[in-house]
# Entry
Amino acid sequence: MGGMQTRRIDVNGPLNVADFGGQGPSMVLVHGLGGSHVNWMLLGPVLAERARVLAPDMAGFGFTPPAGRGMDVHANAGLLGDLLRTEIGAPAILVGNSMGALISLMVASQHPELVAGLVLLGPAVPVAPGVSRDRQVTLAFTAYVTPGVGEMFVRRRLATLGPEGLVRETFSLCCVDPSRVPDEVIEKHVEMVRARTRMPWAHAAVLRAARSLMGEILRRRRFATRLARVEAPTLVLQGEHDRLITSAAARLAARARPGWTYRQLDGLGHTPQLEDPDRTAREILSWVDGPGRAALERAGPERGAPAVEAG
# Structure
């Protein structure tokens, strides 16, 4: 788990970035709803053996303040595009989980020149017709999108569970076997939740992102148009027992693009990068050595960005 350093750079305002080092083609890891760079602390070092790896905190998440920027998926797609354009300076392979996969898709569809390849882990995609959805997930997102109810829901959940309970419940939802995640990784997530209790924008960021995410995946026709515009080679990695995004939904999205590669991770859930980072890395690196070779060849090294003082 070594090799991760955080720094703050300027991308239309302060942006916190975890730097995993490495040399070669750039890989940018994009976290999901309520997540941050700590979601990548197990996978990042493994990928850094083959690539130059960065993991930003999106605006309103982790240690990146909104600083006048929007906190929904559209604004954060714009922020990710700006990061690629001004700081990476070359096409990158985007590895996104859940909401981060949606944000990565949005950038790839709008700015194909910035994206050499896509790896989508448990991507936020439209539900598969006729497939039952997890009741706990459905209730949570119904609360998120309901004005007034969402605000009360996130406040009460944190007040009732506390930082450690909130993290434990989240891992229980996102992993088939949370015990696979090392204790020190759990503690880093708890520390992040504690830090975010002092950030006045934290709850608003989750709600705005969740509402905009749902707005995207409920519009099937627009989502299909977005998929059709993606030019980059793409790998969809889907946990077999993902409770947030069913394998049927992820498979349906991948089948809409015959050139895409779909791989199911048997026995894993929504965050395979935390539950089994070695297996997840093997799948990603096998893809870039095979069907995704064009992504590896097109991705350039990071130009480099000066750090600015954290504050």
DSSP finds twelve helices and eight strands in the chain. Residues 176 and 308 are 39 Å apart (CA to CA). Strands lie at 5-10, 14-21, 26-30, 52-56, 92-97, 115-121, 234-239, 261-265. Residues 305-311 have pLDDT under 50 and may be disordered.
